[in-house]
Amino acid sequence: MAIPLGAAAGILSGMFGIGGGVIIVPALIYILGFEPKTATGTSLAALLLPVAVFAVISYAHAGHVNFRVAVPMAICLAIAAPFGAKIALSLSNRTLAQAFGIFLGLVAIRLIAFPPKG
After folding, report:
1. Fewer C-beta within 10 Å: the chain N or C terminus?
2. 30-39 tens-digit pLDDT
């Protein structure tokens, strides 16, 4: 089951820049029965470097990467991500799953109601 999940997450991540966690985390929870914290940790371990490296190369070759924004953002992500992990680990599995669902719902509503121009 990990192979098709990884393939789907890779395709969607490359297409939408969503980070496979939007696919992998729910799949690990609902298909493989992982607890939310284990699903999150497993997702981070599975997609961090492999997805980033190859997707960035593809987008950079097509001229669609703004490194002036990406580099400082990456530095801030690297600094802030451990704090996010500590917050997540301090929450119950139920609260973490609900917070993730609310986040995804808000993003979906925003994209549907106010799509970007162009």
Report:
1. C
2. 889 999 899 8
What is the total residue count of the chain?
A: 118
**20 against 32, higher pLDDT:** 32
Contact 55, 14 (CB under 8 A): yes
Judging by beta carbons within 10 Å of its beta carbon (0-12, 13-18, 19+), is residue 20 exposed, middle or buried?
A: buried
b/e map 51-77, b = 16+ CB within 10 Å: beeebeeeeeeeeeeeeeeeeeeeeee
**pTM across the whole model:** 0.69
Distant-in-sequence, close-in-space partners of 108: CB < 8 Å, separation ≥ 6: none
User: 28, 38 in Cβ contact below 8 A?
Assistant: yes
Q: Is 1 exposed, middle or buried (0-12, 13-18, 19+ CB in 10 A)?
A: exposed
Which pLDDT tens digit goes with each residue over 105-114? 998 999 899 9
Q: How far apart are CA 108 and CA 21, in angstroms?
A: 15
Question: CA-to-CA distance for 7 and 17, rounded, in angstroms?
Answer: 14
Token pair for residue 76?
């801030």
